[in-house]
Each structure stands twice: as structure tokens, then as C-alpha cells.
What does this fold into?
Amino acid sequence: MLIGVSATGTELGKTFVSRVLLHQARAKGINLRAIKPVASGVAPGAEGESDPGLLAAAMGHTVKHESLVAISPWMFEAPVSPDRAAARVGRRITLTEMVVFCRRSAEREAGSLLIEGAGGIMSPLCADALNVDLFAALECPVVLVAGSYLGTISHTLTALAALAARGIPAAGVVVSQSVSEPMPFAETIETLAPHCAPTPVFALPRINEIGRAPDLTALLDEPMLSE
It folds into this structure.
């Protein structure tokens, strides 16, 4: 089973949510892995702190070049959208290549596979596609990560509408608490949830340790993913 992980924008906690799901799945004996086909902003010498490095560690892998490439074969140093980061080093990635990589990764082992995008759901992913195009091509549900900042309700509902327009099911919305928020976190959840229905909304308070996160494994339930 393929499950996408995307967001309403960038730097909202996609990788943290993926790590939480990997950690909680392992604790419950659920076979779950994760990949991030393309990653930008991967600084040489600091790969362990990159998104692919953090995912590798969350799966219990040694953070080394081989394990990172298996998770993210297209890694770029420039902290810009992946299509531009690739162009800066004379490379071009296509949607077809990404789809093939994701499907082959899913075939290697039984269980479920998280596919983490790069940036927001409507941001460029490669030379010929946005993040939403990858998830549409893979026909997989998407976990949407949002923030609690001013404007998040509009951004979240717009992102859900973009998914619906492409026929992509939303497995759930995870509201990751922002540093700055206009009203109490619980009130943001209470305000947003009715507008997202029937898509469930999960609250993720601002924490630093994945072990302290609330249980998000309901996002992996097949009935929820098929809605």
C-alpha cells in the first residue's frame, strides 16, 4: 500500500510526521517504510541531518550513502524547489522516473510505503510535474500536513480541494503546531475540523521528540485510506 505525505506549504513538518508514523508503526509491529524520491537543501557533510537521513534513522538504518540513495536517489544541495535545484547542476528529473522508482521501492518488501513529497502539494517536484501529479500518477491517498499559523485554514482547504480535483483521497490532515499562531492551538483544530469533514483532522502539538507525539497510526488504517 502506497501512502503519500504532503503539506499545504514548505517547512511544516512532513518529515517529522513521517518519522512519527515510522516510529509508532514499528512499536505496533506494523511493516512501514518511507522514501523521499527527491530532496533539495541536502548539505554535503550534513546528510544525517537531511530529510533522507532522518527517515533512514527512523527506520533503524545506518545513515550512510547507500541507505540515503535507496530512500532519495535525487538529492541536491541548493535549498530551492527540486526542479530548480536539479537544473543548477545540469540534471533533469521526470515524473516517469519518479513513478518507476516509487513502484519499484514498493515491490521490494511487503507492507506499506510512505512517499514523502518535497514542499507543498502544488509546488514543482521535477521538470514536468508538481507534487500532486506524482500522487495522482501513483493513485495513492495522501496525508496532508498543515500548520496553525494565520491563514492556515484557507491554505488547508485549498490543498484539500486540489487533491479532490485530481481524485486523490485525503487520508487525514495533521495540524502541526506553528511557532506563531493567532489563536490557541485547540481552537484552530476546532475551527478547521468541520470544514475538512469527512477527512479526519489530527492535532500534533509542537514537540521535539517523536516519542512524545500523539498516536497517528489511525492514518495507516485501510478503511480510512480508501475513503
Summary: Residues 14-27 form the longest helix (14 residues). The beta strands are 2-7, 32-35, 38-39, 74-75, 112-116, 124-126, 129-130, 142-146, 170-176, 201-204. The first strand starts at residue 2 and ends at 7. Residues 123 and 130 are 5 Å apart (CA to CA).
